[in-house]
Write a structure and sequence with these properties.
- With 145 residues, the protein is α+β, with helices and mostly antiparallel strands.
- It has one domain: Thiol Ester Dehydrase, Chain A (Roll).
- Strand 5 and strand 6 form a beta hairpin.
- The chain is elongated.
Length: 145
């Protein structure tokens, strides 16, 4: 599923104010920080639906990023208020994909779009399946329109 297809699904929005420490000497957000913003978006999406990474970790699993893409469209600057749009677009037994769009709140300018794919790994580092209860919640989020 492409990022544009994800617009048909439920989009969760998270606000984030750019900190001085997020920027380079010119006051522009350092490019790698957008991955942190993606993380904030997906963490808050899961929290909104009554679950968390912690719930998965408590069952002995983690969700490392195994693939990511960022398409930079425009710069964010110190003190900008950003809107992180996050959509869970695909859930499989051993992985899931989140799509993101980051906009500047003041002018709704699209700054970045991208995605992350996560694999389910147990504490021993072996690829695993989502626990049934967690998979059920993710499927409910993904199917919500």
């Amino acid at each position: 599923m492409t990022t544009s297809d994800s617009r048909l699904r439920s989009v969760h929005q998270t606000a984030y104010r750019v900190l001085y420490g997020d920027t380079d000497s010119g006051g522009v957000v350092y490019y790698a920080n957008y991955l942190r913003y993606f993380e904030a978006g997906r963490t808050e999406l899961l929290r909104h639906y009554g679950t968390s990474y912690r719930a998965l970790e408590d069952q002995g699993f983690i969700l490392p990023v195994v693939e990511c893409k960022c398409r930079y469209k425009a710069s964010a600057f110190y003190d900008d208020l950003l809107v992180i749009e996050t959509t869970l677009v695909e859930v499989k037994k051993i992985s899931c994909r989140f799509d993101y769009r980051i906009l500047r709140e003041s002018d709704q300018k699209l700054l970045v779009k991208g995605y992350t794919i996560h694999a389910v790994v147990n504490r021993e580092g072996r690829l695993s399946r989502f626990p049934d209860d967690y998979l059920k919640i993710l499927n409910l989020i993904c199917d919500e329109k």
